[in-house]
Amino acid sequence: MIYNTLGKTGLEVSRLGFGTMRLPTKTNNADINKEEASKMLTYAIENGVNIIDTAYPYHSEGLEGSGESERFLGEYFKENSYRDEIILQTKSPVWAVEKKSDFDMFLDEQLEKLQTDYIDIYMLHSLNVADWEKVRDLNVFDFLDDALSSGKVKHVGFSSHIEVDYVIEIIDEYPKWEVAMTQLNYLDEYYQSGVMGTNYLKQVNMGSMIMEPLRGGRLVNNIPDEVKELWDMAEVKRTPVEWALQYLWNRDDVDCVFSGMTTMDQVKDNIRIASTEDVISDYDKEIIREVARTYRTFLGNDCTRCGYCMPCPHGVDIINCLTEYNIAHMMRDPKASAMQYFSLIDDDSRADSCVQCEECIPFCTQMLNIPEELQKVYEYFGSEFDHF
Ligand code: SF4
Ligand code: SF4
């Protein structure tokens, strides 16, 4: 494993972090397969991963309530001696905070779920512009000051999917921030805060953590032939996961990349890659840029399947509608995607069930106008398979 210093925290972190939002499950999202997930965590820790990320809602049924991921980690660390070796990170559900005392209520609940006296890194989760203004008005900085001085929290930061101007504004308002987590991959250099955000984090010596390194799996699944041909032209042959992760680890403004791992094979593969020094040549960097340009010509929309917009109050399966539309564009095989669209998504969950109420829009981490995107999906697939 290769380690980096996490900005001004001074912590030495494995450059691969274990994200626990996509642990293996049994019957539903809240039903974690604890036996398998424990094996994966133990393998990761014993092979050098020393930072684990969770959040209040991860592995909840409704995606926003109190999730099972924190509870599982609490039970996991109770059964072994790893807790003090691990940098444990979780996040405050800022969207659910209505008054200042709610910050403390959530922090205390999270400490209880995690069965620990302290959280190494505590983040404000997925700050958007509205939540940022709300928490500032609720004196979030007083709460963070108290959480730090009480010892319940060792370091504080935030995660966000917003534009770089806002990220800089947030950073500049509170000198005690030590880390931030933003989205970056070779398709997203100038999307959300992108490389300008990671550059700024480096400039102010904050720890730079990355989410969505594989863009919701899009960079490693269903690779178009044009992209495969480009990868074949590279000086060094790499798998799609190697390209995506090594691109990030070749940047000096990236300290830690979180991967939400679901299988033991993913854990082993990611650790193998994270333990390999791989300097990408200028020629191969140009190949990456060409691959990004090629992908951008295919995409139907920017959905990363994060699930924050679900459930739709009118039953629309937003994620799979947008995904099938994207796959249809990437693979340029509308008939195959239409078969999936009409067979996998129920009649009353397809795009034509959207009533354009717009309730989902504020939840989209990718700032998509979801009803507009669903209208495109409807116009593309229609309402009957015989359309194809
Ligand atoms: S706009 Fe459409 S998808 Fe969004 S919440 Fe309303 S009905 Fe559901
Ligand atoms: S539409 Fe937005 S919030 Fe919903 S899954 Fe896609 S990216 Fe996430």
Describe the structure in your own words.
This protein is α/β, with parallel strands linked by helices and 388 residues long. Helix content is 42%, strand content 14%. The protein has an eight-stranded parallel barrel with strand order 3-4-5-6-7-8-9-10, surrounded by six helices. It has a two-stranded antiparallel sheet with strand order 1-2. Helix 2 (68-78) packs across helix 3 (100-114) and helix 8 runs antiparallel to helix 11. The mean pLDDT is 93. Residues 303-309, 318-319, 322, 363-366, 368, 370 line the site of one iron/sulfur cluster. One iron/sulfur cluster is lined by residues 303-309, 318-319, 322, 363-366, 368, 370.
Topology record:
Layout: E1 3-5, E2 12-14, E3 16-19, H1 34-46, E4 51-53, H2 68-78, E5 87-92, H3 100-114, E6 119-127, H4 129-137, H5 140-150, E7 153-160, H6 164-173, E8 177-183, H7 194-203, E9 207-211, H8 225-232, H9 240-249, E10 256-260, H10 264-274, H11 282-298, H12 318-331, H13 334-344, H14 370-381
Parallel strand pairs: 3-4, 3-10, 4-5, 5-6, 6-7, 7-8, 8-9, 9-10
Antiparallel strand pairs: 1-2
Helix pairs in contact: 1-10, 2-3, 6-7, 8-11, 12-13, 12-14
Bound molecules: iron/sulfur cluster (2 copies).
| Distinct compounds present | iron/sulfur cluster
Q: Which fold name corresponds to the CATH topology of the largest domain? A: TIM Barrel
The coarse overall form would be globular
Termini separation (Å)?
Answer: 50 Å
Query: Total number of β-strand segments?
Result: 10
Beta-strand percentage? 5-15%
Proportion of residues in helical segments: 40-55%
- Following the backbone from N to C, one meets helices and strands in this order, namely EEEHEHEHEHHEHEHEHHEHHHHH
Number of helical segments?
14
**Taking strands numbered 1, 2, ... along the chain, how are they ordered across the largest sheet?**
3-4-5-6-7-8-9-10
CATH class descriptor name of the largest domain: Alpha Beta
The overall average pLDDT, rounded, is 93
- CATH H-level superfamily title of the largest domain: NADP-dependent oxidoreductase domain
> What is the CATH architecture descriptor of the largest domain?
Alpha-Beta Barrel
Q: Assign the structural class, choosing from mainly alpha, mainly beta, alpha/beta, alpha+beta, or little secondary structure.
A: alpha/beta
